[in-house]
Every structure is written in C-alpha cells, then in structure tokens.
Amino acid sequence: MIHIKSPQEGAALFKALGSDIRIAIVEILLDEPDMSMNELATRLDITAGALTGHVKKLEECGVLKVSVEGTGHGNVKRCSVALDKILIDLQPKNMKKNTWQISLKVGQFSECEVWPTCGMASKDGLIGELDDVRYFSHPARFAADILWFGRGFVEYMVPCFIPVGSRIDCLTISVELSSEAPGVNEVWPSDISFSINSVHLGKWTSPGDFGNQRGRLNPEWWHDGLNQYGFLKMLMVNREGTFIDGRKLSDVNLDALALDDRKGFRLRFAAEGDSDHVGGMTLFGRSFGNYDQDIEVRMDYG
C-alpha cells in the first residue's frame, strides 16, 4: 500500500498512471501477476524498447516490481504489480490537527509468546538460532528489523508524549505484515489480530508468505527461501470505529480503549491458535521488505 497525504507527494504516481498504456500494463499484470517484458510487449502490441520507458516510470513510483531471471540464453526481466492498495488521504492545511509520531523497531516488544517456525534478524544477520523461542527474550532482540512466528503474539508499549490534558482524536498505526509459512508459500492465509490495551480491534487475513521476488530492502545475505516482503497495512482508530486501509474493521472506537495521555498504551499483533486461518505472522521493519519504515504510530490530538 502507498499512503499519499498531499497532492505534491502523489504527483509522481499520478503522472505515472496518467497514460492509457501504463494503465493497461497494470491491468494485464493484475490478471497475470508475473510476465516477462517480451510477453508484455507482445500483449500490448508495442516494441520492447517502447515498453521499457513505461515500465521504468511505474517502477520508480512503486507500482511495479521488475526482477531479473537468469536463463540459458541471457537474463530475462519479469514484471509484477508491487501494490495491493493506494490510499489517498488529502486534508486541507487549515484543518490539520496537532500530531505526535513515534517509530518502534520490531524487536522493541515488551511481551511475547511465540511458537515455531520463528526467528529474528537485524540488517547484519540472524539473531540467535532459527526456531528457538528462547531468543525472543534475549537482549539482542532490540536490534531486530524483522521477526516471524507460526502462532502467538508480540506486544509493544507505545509511549505517549502529547501535552497533558489533550484529547486523542485519531490513532494511526502503519506496519508491513505477511503470513509465516515454513519456507515461503504464496497461498498461506493467516488471520492477524490487532488489539490495544487488551481490547480486540479486529483482524486482517494475510493471503500468504511471499517469496516470489526479493524484498526491495532485504540485505544481500538474506536467503531467497525466507520471507521476502509483506503488505503495508494502515490501522486507524477514531471516534467512529476502527478502520484498516480506509475500510471499517469494527465498531471499536477511541472511547473503548481507555487511553491515558500520561501512560501510553499496549499494542498487540497476534496470530492466534484458534483462528480460522492459523498461518503465523511476519513483521517487517526498516531494513526488510518493500517499505522503508518500522512500526509507525501517529496520534492526532486537540
């Protein structure tokens, strides 16, 4: 998901999509997610040279991914759509509220309970041993930029430093997530639950654990057979309820969370064992996946 917050921020994307040919490229790749440049050029009835410029514009703004596949006759470039959603959130400047933001590293959890398959890594290497849950209590976990587990939860203590006496009007959480399969599996659904202060907000079903292409930010040492990237999900709680990527998830609103402007709150991500789809969870930080961010929390207050 791309979250656009102003017309200027979205200018490159709007320009890239302002072409019938480029719209056709996206539509074709949505129906057939992995095509070579030659296959795509043939489908569009244009030359490979003409296609290259269009693909480059879509790749530069994050709409497409281009990977190189080695063959016996040279390298083949393959294209696929990199996004699941584009969220445009345009708020007039004179309506902009006071905001406070914080980034949490994925290893900064305060409590957890996990079961294999599981593990953690920083940009420099694995933390401990794969599938050994003991390392989730090791101090080295604070350096983790990615973590994964077959079922269980991680919980974060989110501090709050808005002015004392202020009222939180909107809480927004942004994080890159996917399922966790042994190895990778494109079709591996998993129900990922969200809660704040032990109040269940709702759940999102991740469609799979993706390994068809390398994550854009993954370090060179990261093995191709491990989790590569996820979906960027935006969770928002306001006075009307809880929303995910702009779609209403539940009626749980800010009043139900008992937020205290002096204490912060507990944020939990869980892959529960009694869900319909028990497929684990992978949580990506700044050095892994496709999005250059950690767990981002924003509070709008008045």
TrEMBL record:
> Which Gene3D superfamilies does the UniProt record give?
Winged helix-like DNA-binding domain superfamily/Winged helix DNA-binding domain (1.10.10.10)
Tell me the superkingdom of the source.
Bacteria
The record's section on SUPFAM superfamilies has: Winged helix' DNA-binding domain (SSF46785)
Q: Where is the HTH arsR-type domain?
A: 2-97
Gene Ontology MF: a single term: DNA-binding transcription factor activity
InterPro entries registered for this protein in UniProt: ArsR-like_HTH, HTH_ArsR_DNA-bd_dom, WH-like_DNA-bd_sf, WH_DNA-bd_sf
Source organism lineage? Bacteria, Bacillati, Bacillota, Clostridia, Lachnospirales
Name of the protein in its database record: Winged helix-turn-helix transcriptional regulator
